[in-house]
Write a structure and sequence with these properties.
about 110 residues, mainly alpha, two-stranded antiparallel ribbon, 2 helices, about 45% helix, elongated
Length: about 110
């Protein structure tokens, strides 16, 4: 649309172009990778929170983890008031050795040494 002053009006906004140099491109790539890493980290933390809460609500903890609760469960009036965290509880070396021995003796695992 041209008006009386020969000025064109448009619904578009001018955005200055990005620097096309290889250094600028590499910098933008690194910034994007860092942003993706931050988003993945936040997402994995949230996923862990939800897994712990789910285990707690189902009263079905995963036996490979030790669970601890933060807060006073007696004051828990709504879901999510008490934060449950978990830490991986790897089995003892004796139990691992016994399990591997059982797998070898049953032929389900072949020892290469």
């Amino acid at each position: 649309n041209a008006n009386a002053n020969n000025v064109v009006s448009s619904d578009y906004v001018f955005v200055p172009g990005l620097d096309p140099s290889p250094d600028a491109l590499e910098h933008r790539r690194r910034e994007r990778v860092e942003e993706i890493d931050r988003l993945l980290h936040r997402g994995s933390e949230r996923l862990l929170e939800l897994q712990c809460e789910r285990d707690d609500l189902l009263c079905a903890p995963n036996p490979l983890y030790n669970y601890t609760k933060a807060g006073d469960p007696s004051t828990n009036r709504t879901f999510g008031d008490v934060r449950t965290t978990r830490e991986f509880n790897f089995p003892s070396p004796e139990l691992v050795d016994e399990y591997i021995g059982e797998l070898v003796s049953n032929g389900r695992l072949v020892s290469l040494n």
